[in-house]
Design goal:
Blueprint lengths: L1 H13 L2 H4 L4 H24 L3 H4 L11 H29 L11 H28 L1 H8 L18 H17 L4 H19 L8 H4 L7 H11 L10 H6 L5 H23 L1
Helix pairs in contact: 3-5, 3-9, 6-7, 6-8, 6-9, 9-11
Main location: membrane
Keywords: Membrane, Transmembrane, Transmembrane helix
Protein name: Cholesterol 25-hydroxylase
């Protein structure tokens, strides 16, 4: 049944071959998927100040998303796609024409390849990210722009410098090529990668959030990345937690709560001593 569904989906996509082979397609695809992923969270941000039910799921409920910040991010994202992603798409279209094999990939192959691409991207991003925090000039000139907000929201996912945007786009484009993925698998990886990036920056934690569905704390998610923007020198991996565990940079919400409790206890003891 799953193979039949993938074949029907792939046959339908192949009917749009002229669009798929257009140099405009990667830009339109990337921007439309990104905005579709952001839209539900934008709606939640608008409702957050009015509904306590929404605020209870916000990781930093005291933070507010302003129209000015939203508009700034939208303008920057649109400019980056038009001025930088589109020219690169034309170059990529020229050097690597789109191939449309008649047979869709098997479901198991899709799952395996998408997971492999995500793990490879997670590794690339971790070391890229760690380097840009440890080397001062790399942080100052290239990565600092992404740390304008200590409380992230969905549109800040691509609120980055041009260098950072191009670096991560390069990793995203390269990995399916390295793993020789089917074009349909490549598209599904792009969708998964964009969604997980937006979810990590969303600022919300729900009972169905990805990190709650993956056992043993192997996946970080929104809590994980929110702490990176808040604490700065922790949680460098975008999705999974194994690299942060190995390098001793993993920080969890539980640790943060314990730290805050300890601070409150110290302040309480200090106040008691002063009264004495």
């Amino acid at each position: 049944m799953s193979q039949l569904f993938l074949q029907i989906l792939w046959d339908w996509l192949r009917e749009w071959t002229s669009l798929l082979r257009s140099p405009c397609f990667p830009v339109l695809f990337s921007l439309s998927v990104y905005m579709c992923c952001c839209f539900p969270y934008i709606c939640l941000d608008l409702l957050c100040s009015r509904l306590a039910l929404v605020r209870r799921f916000k990781i930093q409920p005291q933070s507010k998303v302003t129209w000015a910040a939203t508009w700034r991010c939208l303008c920057k994202i649109s400019r980056n796609h038009v001025c930088f992603i589109f020219p690169l798409s034309v170059v990529h279209w020229y050097w690597k024409p789109v191939v449309s094999p008649p047979v869709a990939p098997a479901m198991l192959a899709v799952v395996k390849d998408v997971l492999a691409c995500l793990l490879l991207f997670d590794t690339q991003y971790f070391f890229w990210h760690l380097l840009h925090h440890k080397v001062y000039w790399l942080y100052r000139f290239f990565h600092k722009e992404h740390h304008v907000y200590t409380a992230t929201f969905s549109l800040t996912t691509e609120d980055t410098s041009v260098w950072e945007m191009l670096s991560l786009s390069f990793f995203t484009t390269l990995n399916p090529v390295l793993l020789d993925c089917h074009p349909l698998t490549e598209m599904l990886f792009f969708i998964a990668n964009i969604y997980l990036s937006v979810e990590a920056h969303s600022g919300y934690e729900f009972p169905w959030s990805p990190h709650r569905l993956v056992p043993f704390g192997l996946y970080g998610g929104a809590q994980h990345h929110d702490l990176h923007h808040l604490k700065f020198k922790v949680n460098y991996a975008p999705y999974f937690t194994h690299w942060d565990r190995l390098f001793g940079t993993l920080h969890t919400q539980k640790k943060s709560r314990n730290t805050e409790t300890l601070k409150r206890m110290c302040l309480s003891d200090s106040a008691t001593t002063d009264e004495d």
